[in-house]
Amino acid sequence: MKLFIDSNHLSPYAMSAFVALREKSIPFDVVPIDLQGNEHSGPLYAGVSTTLRVPTLGHDQFTLSESSAICEYLEEIHPATPIYPANVRDRAKAREIQAWLRSDLMPIRMERSTEVVFLKRTPAQLSSVARIAAEKLFKASEQLLSAGHATLFEQWCIADTDLALMLNRLVMAGDQVPERLAQYARTQWQRRSVQEWVNMQRAIQ
Q1: pTM for this one?
Q2: First to last CA, the chain
């Protein structure tokens, strides 16, 4: 297998696919794509990804983009080590969380980019719009995380990594985050597969 990712290792979606592969102990090669150099728009990458996006998974002659689709595909072909809950409703809820984090909360994603998380950037204060989005994130996360639980469901799943990253955009920026959610994000961040991504070498931009 090959996983095509951004060469600076800043994409939260590439991270999600990377963690999924590591959690399943699937051997794969990383293929870095220079997004700043517009490599993803070139003719060679067009033959790999129809959407011209990262991450993209290459498996034999099959290619697949979009991180949540990659995670679900990996779950189908390597079910022995699950990255989604066994319960059908919990599994659907995990996919809902992934879809929500990818489609909503844009003010947070804009004002707290992953450079804050992976390059230790110090951002400006949150705008009023971003603070509203943050409160929405906190309220939803409080509802999703049962009291005293370290994971969304009975066992870790890939949605935990995605939610922890969204929360850590704020935690690592020094924004006020409810302690229970901050502790959840810090705990999830110590997972070996996550730490492998976090500790990748990145060019200073």
Answers
A1: 0.95
A2: 30
Rounded to 10 deg, the angle between the 128-144 and 179-189 helix axes is 80
Q: Enter the tokens of residue 150.
A: 């370290």
Question: CA–CA separation, 20 vs 10, rounded Å?
Answer: 16
Q: What distance lies between CA 29 and its chain's CA centroid?
A: 19
> How far apart are alpha carbons 92 and 72 in whole angstroms?
11
- Write the pLDDT tens digit of every residue in 140-171: 999 999 877 899 999 999 999 999 999 999 99
Q: Report d(CA 79, CA 82) in Å as an integer.
A: 6
Virtual CA dihedral for 37, 17, 48, 26, nearest 10 degrees? Answer: 130
Say which residue the tokens 């990255």 belong to: 83
CA distance 37 to 58: 22
* Whole-number Å distance between alpha carbons of 205 and 198: 16
Dist. CA 98–CA 158, nearest whole Å: 9
